[in-house]
Amino acid sequence: MGPLIVYENITQNTNLFFAFLIGIGFGFVLEASGFSSSRKLAGQFYGYDTTVIKVFFTAAITAGIGLLIFGLFGWIDLDLIYINPYYKWSTIVGGMIMGAGFILGGFCPGTSFTGVAIGKIDAMIFVGGLLLGILIFTEGYPIFEGLYMAAYKGTPRVSSMMGISDGLFLLGLVIVAFGMFYVAEWAEKKFPLKEGSK
Amino acid sequence: MKNVKIKSTRVLLAVIYIPVAFVLAFAPVKTNKPNALSSEELLEEVNSSVQFISPDDVADRIIKQDPFLQLIDVRTPEEFEKFSLPGAINIPLAQLLSDEYAYILNQSDYINVYYSNGTVFASQAWLLTRMKGYENNYVLMGGLNYWAETIMNPEAPSSTSPNEEVAKYNFRKGASQVLGGGATENDSAATSILAAPKPPIKKNTQRKRVQGGC
Amino acid sequence: MSEQSIPEFRKTSYFNPYVGGVLLGLVLLAAFYISGRGLGASGAVKSAVVAGVETIAPSHAENTKFYSDYADAHPNGPLKSWLVFEMLGVLIGGFISGAIHGRLKLQVEHSPKITSRKRLIFALAGGILFGIGSQLGRGCTSGSALSGMAVLSMGGFISMIFIFGTAYALAYFVRKLWI
To answer: Do A61 and B17 touch (CB under 8 A)?
Structure first.
């Protein structure tokens, strides 16, 4: 039964080795899907290339469905997997800052590493910026601490907050995702990238 | 055309994912939490008094140093400091349901015995944990007051009593000497033994949620 | 660059996005099944920052609450963490894919309308913002938004909405960078 780290007593080092293998899969799929290109990533915000939205949401619903199936068959204990804590204000403000970083920098942290892996200099500079930004946070932690710790709401699932089952919420998410994919494909036709036209 | 291929993949995925999600939405939810008891089931247990354990039984286990006995004092820390049973740990009733004690109360290896001065607090502790479906928790019958009467200062039976009564008295008399009761009144203050909770048995280690995040 | 040149990322072939998404979802599922946690990225960079500070300025690290708390929470040292090993894998996995698909090339990718220099300045600025934001938001696009959405967590959805929402809201004002 999963998570293996909890139920099968795999050692810390084995877990790190699996992290490495999972990382290889993660990096391979990101690069192969085009996440190593900042222009392709930025395309989602202008409609000319919506690969990111398709990959991102397909991955989320695939893993979400997989987790529920695993839970249903007793292959994984869903009470023991990590759920990110919800601190309302830091999540909102952090998300907004990240959004600004995304549109200016053209990468997010995970994708920038795949850019680095294939030699993108802009990705290397972006990673340099990440190091600097995190250093600003760790050095300036007393300034951020109030916001960082405010309005802690535990680790709620959206489904439980809405009072519906996980499966029902996921069904809604799957339907919304396919609706978005339809719109995304339409947007690509509507807003093609006109290179060079001034 | 590439775009046609992408579109047909989307349609294929939708045809698979939406029905699967639909089934999941109405599938029964499975949890491995201990089964919480309904009020009716609880009432039945309360009526049959299965939660009580007699002071003689507890005293016997203490003397024999039963490794599976876990005494839990649910009174306040101040009261616990003044007097407690040998080997007992203190979990004040107010903190009974805090996460740090869950591994002690929700287990299948030890016999947990709640006690308080009377039986009110201990019974409340039992009821609260039983409601959550925890097993192997009991209440010391009569509480410490009755314990003092029976074990510490047993009343001698009359000469006409049946043999069992005499045997019981002899046991209690012996127990009171071992447990520091009886004639040596001034000893009672010195019997506060602070004990650590019994270590959980390996197979039953409390499983903790994985820590993650960036 | 000629008037109607095809951008670099259009010349090469990538996975069908839905196939890529399913594969990424399976990798994420494997992470949950084996290690009980989702994917992440910014946490590994944070480990590197903490390790750097501890090496360069050990007394500063000891006397600053943030670093000493971090050291207490990570008794094996900042670099022996799940995310650090995962991100090493990402570099290798990305390199393998780049090699297979013939995309290994040292270059600055930018819109023909801006210079390399400008692209790099904005990349740095974006990186700094993402660095701060990911710490405040307890995870980036992968750690908080993607992994959080897979477990239907409130934090994950709020993260996702505000990352993408802000980027869409600002897109018009910085369109010269990209289109």
So the answer is: yes
**What angle separates helix A166-190 from helix A51-72, to the nearest 10 degrees?**
160
Strands B69-73 and B111-115: parallel
The position carrying tokens 């992968």 is: C142
Based on the number of CB atoms within 10 Å of its own CB, is A17 exposed (0-12), middle (13-18) or buried (19 or more)? middle
Read off the tokens for B43: 């009432």
Neighbours of chain C (3+ CB pairs under 8 A): A, B
What value of ipTM does the predicted structure carry? Answer: 0.94
Q: Do A90 and C136 make contact, defined as CB atoms within 8 angstroms?
A: yes
Could you give the CA distance from residue B72 to residue B205 in angstroms, rounded to a whole number? 20
If asked whether residues A54 and A117 sit together in one domain, one would say: no
Q: Are B94 and B78 in contact (CB under 8 A)?
A: no
Q: Does B2 reside within a domain?
A: no
Backbone angles phi, psi at A73, to 5 degrees: -90, 5
C47-84: pLDDT as tens digits: 999 999 999 999 999 899 899 889 888 888 889 999 99
Q: Considering its fold, how many domains does chain A have in total? A: 2
> What is the DSSP secondary structure assignment for residue C39, as one 8-state letter?
-
> CA of B16 to nearest chain A CA: how many angstroms apart?
11
- Residue C38 CA, distance from chain mean position: 14
Q: Phi/psi at A172 (nearest 5 deg)?
A: -60, -45
Q: Are A75 and A91 contained in the same domain? A: no
Three-state secondary-structure class, residue A136: helix
Residues A43 and A110 in one domain: no
What pLDDT digit, counting tens, does each position of A118-168 carry?
999 999 999 999 999 999 999 999 999 999 998 888 889 999 889 899 999
Range of the domain at A142: 84-156
pLDDT score for B33: 55
Q: Which residues of B touch A165 (CB under 8 A)?
A: 25, 29
Quick one: A69 and A26 in the same domain?
Answer: yes
CATH number for position B81: 3.40.250.10
- Whether A197 is covered by a domain: the verdict is no
Structural domain boundaries, residue B91: 39-197
Looking at the structure of chain B, the number of domains it has is 1
Question: Is-contact A33 C101, C-beta < 8 A?
Answer: no
Question: Could you tell me the maximum CA-CA distance found in chain C, to the nearest angstrom?
Answer: 58
The reply to whether A169 and A75 lie within a common domain is yes
Cβ contacts (< 8 Å) between C162 and chain A: which residues?
91-92, 94-96, 98-99
Chain C, 57-96: which have a CB under 8 Å from a chain A CB?
64-67, 76, 80, 82-83, 85-96
Q: What residue has token string 């930025």?
A: A42
